[in-house]
Amino acid sequence: MLTDPEEIRIISNAIQKNVQDPKRSREHFLRIFFDFLEDKDFKDKIFLDLGPGQYDFGVLASQRGALVYGIDSDPAVIELGRYKGFPVTYGNLENIRADECDTDLDGVFCKYSIDAFWFAIDHRSLEKHILEIIKLIRRGGWAWIAPWNGAYEETGLSASDIHRILSVQAAVFKRFGFNAFDLTEDVSKHYGIHGKTANRALFTLNLRIPKRLEVCKKL
């Protein structure tokens, strides 16, 4: 939740309506921290938030001693980050390049900011996109990545094509040691990653798996 009048003014210009809302709760992020990240060391660590929105992850991580970078293409999100003191850069999340990052990261966080269907007609580009994200993470680092996968209705793809694209996404993450889940509706709502999407995918690396996920299907 944003209370600073200047922060509210800035974010009111965000492209996405859910990002514009200054009364948006941080509860979902607190649940993610408690279930997945409570045992992680944040002191002097460096993390990247892909699509930081209102910087809920950044605030919680920085309170624990971390430095959090952000990447986004929304000018309002970038302005908010700089106002709040976060190092944030303009970037198209479809074209992430690991070689443009000047440091290896201790972790990557992404809550509903990447989409497999950006690459619906080119599976190789989808694989490359995921590999660029993975290459950002130093050995032993962690990742919590919940793709949106919500643009499928705009593609005109068949059900079999949609299944194939989602399978490619899961297969690449799993190839590099990620746990891959298709969350139930209740679990996805608990973490604030629910909506009209082709699936409710969650990919985690080097993170504990909470008991809540035992009811979820593995991809």
Question: What does this entry look like structurally?
Answer:
The chain is α/β, with parallel strands linked by helices. It has one domain: Rossmann fold (3-Layer(aba) Sandwich). The protein has eight helices and eight strands, in the order αααβαβαββαβαβαββ. The protein has helices at 5-11, 17-20, 27-37, 56-63, 75-84, 123-135, 159-175, 185-190; strands spanning 46-50, 67-72, 88-90, 105-111, 137-146, 179-182, 201-205, 217-218. Helix 6 packs parallel to helix 7 (159-175). The termini are far apart. The relative contact order is 0.13. The mean pLDDT is 96.
Percent helix: 25-40%
Order of the strands making up the biggest sheet: 3-2-1-4-5-7-6-8
Poorly predicted ranges: none
Alpha-carbon Rg, integer = 17 Å
Tell me the series of helices and strands, N- to C-terminal. HHHEHEHEEHEHEHEE
Structural class: alpha/beta
- Give the biggest sheet: 8 strands, mixed
CATH topology: Rossmann fold
CATH superfamily annotation = Vaccinia Virus protein VP39
**Mean pLDDT across all amino acids:** 96
CATH-scheme architecture: 3-Layer(aba) Sandwich
Question: What's the total number of strands?
Answer: 8
Report how far apart the termini are: 33 Å
* Overall number of structural domains: 1
